[in-house]
Design goal:
Elements: E1 2-15, E2 18-31, E3 35-39, H1 46-53, E4 59-66, E5 69-70, E6 81-84, H2 96-106, H3 111-124, H4 140-152, E7 158-162, H5 170-187, E8 190-195, H6 198-204, E9 207-212, E10 215-220, H7 222-227
Parallel strand pairs: 3-8, 3-9, 6-7, 7-8
Antiparallel strand pairs: 1-2, 1-4, 4-5, 9-10
The protein binds adenosine-5'-diphosphate (ADP) and magnesium ion.
Length: about 230
């Protein structure tokens, strides 16, 4: 089964009266359960690609199918996609518990079920001992784990990571990469993992897409791309 399919897909931003092309005629299929790393420099269109999956972009052309459904017919509130933004965006006034519980409360989940899910996901991410703290009392790596827990609490079928490790020191990065692998195995979810870091791509990806100036420059397994002279 195909989880995501971009067909000749473009995305534009409107700057005053001009349109800027952020994604330029992309065709790409992501299999269900695949961990796809999108690799590219700043400004290459990585965040835009994720925003399009979330239906947050206004000016698009071509087609995008999510689980076989064209996005024209698709309502975000009915979808189950986890999104970990570059800026994390945790709620500072809420405890860790309430931050993780938030997406479940938005859909009026009964408190007993909220409690079960929050504790289960917090245990998986090894943050169960932090549940009563506020975000300001956490380290960068801990904040990262909470943001991931919040994105996973609804058991999403697809998870989008936007450069999650960009503000994290190198030793913690290795640890968090292991965590992403663990999540991928535990949930069997489709993952789109956006990064500018080669090591992320080499250590995580089933396949890598290299984006440059909104175009797909290459796509393949890390091994295939290495053989073709990419990823070095
Ligand atoms: P990346 O995440 O790879 O750094 P983005 O997807 O954020 O790249 O941006 C792709 C291109 O679109 C860049 O040239 C950027 O300047 C432009 N862009 C992104 N967001 C906007 C916006 N809201 N308005 C206008 N241009 C934008
Ligand atoms: Mg970005």
């Amino acid at each position: 089964m195909i989880a995501l399919e971009f067909q000749d897909f473009s995305c534009y931003y409107k700057n005053k009266k001009e349109y800027v092309t952020a994604l330029d005629r992309i065709s790409l299929s992501v299999k269900q359960g695949e961990l796809l790393v999108v690799l590219g420099q700043s400004g290459s269109g990585k965040t835009t690609l994720l925003k399009c999956v979330l239906g947050l972009c206004d000016y698009i052309s071509g087609a995008l199918f999510i689980d076989g459904v064209a996005t024209d017919d698709f309502r975000l509130k009915d979808s189950n996609i986890g999104y970990i933004r570059q800026e994390l965006n945790l709620y500072p006034h809420m405890t860790v518990y309430d931050n993780i519980a938030f997406p479940l409360r938005m859909i009026h989940t009964p408190q007993s079920e909220v409690d079960r899910r929050v504790k289960e996901i917090a245990a998986l991410l090894e943050v169960d001992w932090l549940l009563t703290r506020k975000p300001r009392q956490l380290s960068g790596g801990q904040l990262q784990r909470i943001a991931i827990a919040r994105a996973l609490v609804k058991n999403p079928v697809t998870v989008l990571f936007d450069e999650p490790f960009s503000n994290i020191d190198p030793t913690l990065r290795t640890e968090l990469r292991q965590l992403v692998k663990k999540i991928h195995q535990a949930f069997g979810c489709t993952i789109l993992f956006v990064t500018h870091d080669l090591t992320d791509a080499l250590s995580l990806a089933d396949r890598v897409v290299i984006l440059e100036s909104g175009k797909i420059e290459a796509i393949g397994t890390p091994q295939e791309l290495l053989q073709k002279g990419y990823l070095q």
